[in-house]
Design a protein that fits this description.
alpha/beta; about 20% strand
Amino acid sequence: MRVVSACLMGCKCRYDGNANYVEKMARFVEAGKALPVCPEQLGGLSTPRNPAEIVGGDGFDVLDGKARVVDNQGNYVTDLFIRGAEQALHIAQAAGAKEAILKERSPSCGSTSIYDGSFSKSKRSGVGVTAALFIRNGIVVRSEESQ
Ligand code: SF4
């Protein structure tokens, strides 16, 4: 079993109420080979919601209390992102998932690249909060762009 970002299988859970549909990911879910999760919704954020970025580091830094997640209105949403990551991890572990395929560049799901916190569409290398928590708990995290 693997976990996939829910937006990749067509769930309209993205911050702007849209999906990031990738047919291959939807097929994994339909075949019972993958479980969709949306950490940001699991953390209690609504859809649609303000876009958020990690300021001062990446997902590992957020988990370590060295960086924050902030939305484009200046609201701190770090706790909701961490709660969502923990909920997603709980689901992944309950399902026995050893691998996750997550949406690149998301502040939750990014696995090699995220936005840099300036809300200028600039990117930096690093992982999102959920990707970081998954990696620390032995789940192999891959980007949908590497599939
Ligand atoms: Fe997709 Fe992850 Fe963002 Fe949810 S948190 S919309 S699953 S990228």
